[in-house]
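Reopening this one. Same input as before:
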Amino acid sequence: MEYLEGLFSLNGLFTLAMLILLQAILGFDNLLYISIESKRVEASLQQKVRRIGIGLAIILRIALLFVVKGMISAFEDPFLTLGSESEDSWFRCSINLESLVVLFGGAFILYTAVKEIFHMISVHGLDHDENAAQRTFGSALFWIIMMNLIFSFDSILSAMALTDNMLIISIAIAISGILMIVLADNVSEFLKRNRMYEVLGLFILFIVGVMLVSEGGHKAHLSFFGHEIVAMQKSTFYFVIAVLVLVDIVQSRYQKKLLAAAERRAAHG
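Same output, byte for byte:
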């Protein structure tokens, strides 16, 4: 009853709207990963794997919310400390559960992005590449759920900083999950129709991996030769994404002009 009263208050409704917006912003990188990952299964199963994967991930994310709330010290307290505090120590870290999960997620996304980029430039036939399923339905479903949970840590901890009303946070997670299902289908269809943007998507995914690795390293207090890893700021991340998109737009328009000019020269030649 206390949670319900908090939900239907003016402050509760405002907090719910803010959390939905926060989940949407933080879910952008997750959405891109889901769209790229689902493309690797058989075409007839792609929409199904996206919807089931996100649906199961919503349920697990809400469960994770209560786990994190009940075990907040386990996620914050370090369980492995290496190196000394002295300045001449070449390596130092203080790893907790949260930093380990974020580091693993970032490293896996970096690996996925680099592998897909190399696959893209090494493939001989685009038609063959498009029709070749690289993952089974179960494998893709597993990785979509796992990466969704890894991306959940930031959004859950940010949500808990705004409110302690678990009902409000759970509703925000459910609504953002439904929006993600709709948007994942649209993003995937856009990438299918505009395959030149796959390169942009993969490099954005690469930047996401860099951001997560730096964030995980910062949370783990990783330092090498006295220099501590600093987390990439969200503002820096979005600025880099904006620059990548702008460069891609300018380059594609310039390329169209060059092709048009070459066609005119060929017609007059």
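So the earlier flakiness isn't reproducible anymore. For the record, The longest helix spans residues 234-268.
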